[in-house]
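Request: Mind sharing a record?
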Amino acid sequence: MDKANRKVWHVVYTRARSEKKVYAQLRIQDIDCFLPIQKKLRQWKDRKKWVEMPLISGYCFVFIDHKEFEKVLQTPQVVRYVSFEGKPAVIPTRQIDFLKQLTAQSEFPVEVSRQTFNPGKKVEIISGPMVGLQGELLSYRGKDRFILRIEQINTVFSVEVQSDKLTLLPEENQ
């Protein structure tokens, strides 16, 4: 397959609170896309309700080739592609797979941050719903945090994981 027809993951900015609309419009156009969703308990004055919220506000991921590039930009509520060094950011498939696995589980609450963290030791989750995932270990406020960095969108995903569910990876993987 030549480079122009090869599909890669990109990220688009959406208008405020339009992530679900963009995702629905892209699906109608048969564009392969992914919107990481997390269920959160919301409190109103008179009630509490579980709602599905985008994990990363303002972003939607698209798996497209060169021919679909403009089609995505013409979708209502899409603002532009997220760029990295002046070019549309390409997100590695393994990071999208991680996000899919992270949002498919509900055992551990996920936090999203744009704060920068110092790199920690490389670890792998050895039990639970995220078994096999590799990332960094960061001790934060006295608790072990499992971290995935997506440099292209300057975002860190952090999950509190008990230390008995982690194993330190050998130095050569670091």
Summary: The chain has two domains: 3-91, 97-173.
